[in-house]
Amino acid sequence: MNCPKCGYAMGPFDVECERCKRMGEPQPEPIPELLPQAPPPVEREAVDRAYQTEVDALQAQANLAGQLSSVSCLVGLLMLGGLVLLILFAR
């Protein structure tokens, strides 16, 4: 059965139209605390400081990795040189 006023499809046991009933009642005002709030503004300096700290940490890691690779190459060359000397003097 459809509502004669708005055409809403009512159930077989509905006595009054839910849509007309809702439209006739005043809607409650929303509570301001429950409305979505904009996030507080972010301090630009704090973001820049945090970013710079991370950049500095990554640069330090890259420098350490570069130093370690240089040291490992040097150690490898020394070992190779020692092996060559060992072979030459073993004869």
Give a structural overview.
The protein contains 2 helices and no strands. The radius of gyration is 39 Å and the shape is elongated. Helices cover 59% and strands 0% of the residues. The relative contact order is 0.05. By secondary structure, the protein is mainly α.
Main attributes?
91 residues, mainly alpha, elongated
Shape: elongated
Count of distinct strands: 0
Number of helical runs?
2
DSSP strand content = under 5%
Structural class, judged by helices and strands? mainly alpha
Amount of helix: 55-70%
Biggest sheet statistics: none
Which residue ranges are poorly predicted, with pLDDT under 50 across at least 5 consecutive positions? none
Question: How far apart are the first and last residues' alpha carbons, in Å?
Answer: 110 Å
Radius of gyration over alpha carbons? 39 Å
Mean pLDDT across every amino acid position = 81
Order of helices and strands: HH
List the SSEs and their pairings:
Layout: H1 18-24, H2 44-90
